[in-house]
Design a protein that fits this description.
Number of domains: 1
Helix content: under 10%
Oligomer: single chain
Number of strands: 9
Largest sheet: 5 strands, antiparallel
Structural class: mainly beta
Distance between the termini: 31 Å
Low-confidence stretches: 133-148
Length: 148
């Protein structure tokens, strides 16, 4: 998800099968990711937390969350969860995806160059929309926030 670094996210969409996630920036740039799997596994976006952290703040850092095995929620015997942590000056959001398989197949997500139109995004579920409050980017860029 390195394509999100330096971007201010306005909206996030997810398709019905949870296999495509689309980010729209405040500049109306469309950045999309699709899960990839082999013949004997299924990969999907499963969890997204703290998305409000993205509201009006630039994504400064992206950390990959290492894969770990979890109890299966779908048909096959092995399920792994992994994902990305998107950090802003306000905190971080978490996006996790899962891979369910028979023990031999891996899966991932990939950046796509496809630019979904607003008409196409109407078929998706909007899972995040930034608040309308003003954003002072100058302050965010000049000062590093610190815990007191």
């Amino acid at each position: 998800m390195k394509e999100l670094k330096g971007k201010i996210i306005k909206e996030i969409y997810l398709n019905e099968d949870k296999e495509i996630m689309v980010f729209k920036t405040i500049d109306n740039e469309v950045i999309s990711y699709q899960t990839k799997n082999d013949c004997c596994n299924v990969v999907w976006f499963e969890t997204w937390e703290n998305l409000d952290i993205l509201s009006n703040y630039k994504v400064n850092r992206i950390i990959e969350i290492p894969m770990r095995e979890v109890d299966p929620t779908r048909g096959d015997s092995v399920e792994e969860v992994y994902g990305h942590r998107l950090e802003t000056n306000k905190g971080y959001a978490l996006i996790e995806y899962r891979n369910n398989h028979n023990g031999y197949y891996g899966g991932t997500i990939e950046f796509t160059n496809y630019k979904y139109s607003d008409k196409e995004l109407k078929r998706f579920r909007k899972i995040f929309e930034a608040s309308n409050r003003a954003h002072n980017e100058d302050i965010d860029d000049r000062f590093e926030l610190m815990d007191i």
